[in-house]
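job 3f2a | input accepted
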Amino acid sequence: MDSLLYLLIGAYTAGLSDGVCLYGFNTETGDSKYISSVVVENPSYIDAGKSGYLYAVTENDGAPSYVNTLFFDREQEKIRLVNRQETFAASPCYVTINDAHTHVVTANYGGGSISVFPVQADTLLPCAQLIVSEGSGADKSRQEAAHLHCVMFTPDDRYLFAVDLGSDRIYRYEVNASSDMASAFLNEATMKPYSLPAGSGPRHLTFHPSGKYMYAINELSGAVTAFRYDEGELGELQTILADSAGGRASAHIDITPDGKHLYVSIRNKADGIAIFSIDDKDGRLTKTGYQFTGRHPRNFVITPNGRFLLAASRDSNLVEVFEINKETGALRNIGKNIADVDTPVFLKFI
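job 3f2a | predicted structure (350 res):
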């Protein structure tokens, strides 16, 4: 594997940031170098398509919000905006593209909805399907209505899971694999809800590399819920606390490529990363450590070789570079942080 990768940093744009910054990152040494940037408003989540195309949300609250098509020119090492389409819902905060690269889907926090966009020649077409969720939860200040926070395709691309922080539910939809643009991409008649304990506030998901398990981080309760996964069905395995400080703002969740360690970012109190080991026999978690970070680590990313974890601490204007102990999962800051970014909130390798 090439040790030199490109790193995307998405940042809120009320301050000094252009929006999307491009860095070079050495996955063997942890060194990084700024390359270029492109103006995109509030790109809080980005997914990579094929042939250099990227899809970034514009997370606006109360103003029109968008999903943007970007193109990364590797020869010029520059990113340019191709087009954008309105989500018709406020605060899109997650975007994903299916493996077939036919559709882009966003989770809209403020709108409590899912927006679906056909992709033609790698470029976004207007929103073709808007699925609005209803419901509320026990926390009247945070769960007064539906708040979709994540959408994720299953490893086989046959289903899409959507996470509603507002109603403590994870929804499953069958995907229509037909290329017929007249057909709805997500089959709403097949929607199946999975309920979590009242006040959990589920936020993000991740699948184990084996495809046998799925894990959800609950923002409000600070707990991780582990599920068995098989052919679109979930079976709850375990609930284990990640945020023992009670910050009620757990954020992101991800797993090392070897499937041995799971990490969760924690905000508001004791900002940091909770560390778990994963039992290779049954997928259950054991908490093994905790690494303090800068303020408000909204997002993090793990290098494809499993050597480093990079954490974007929004309120410290800092991306910290941690080396992963592959045996224990422990994190060690190697002193090669990226400190010239303003309000970083998203990281992705391409």
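job 3f2a | Residues 1-39+203-350 form a domain with the Methylamine Dehydrogenase; Chain H fold (CATH 2.130.10.10).
job 3f2a | closed
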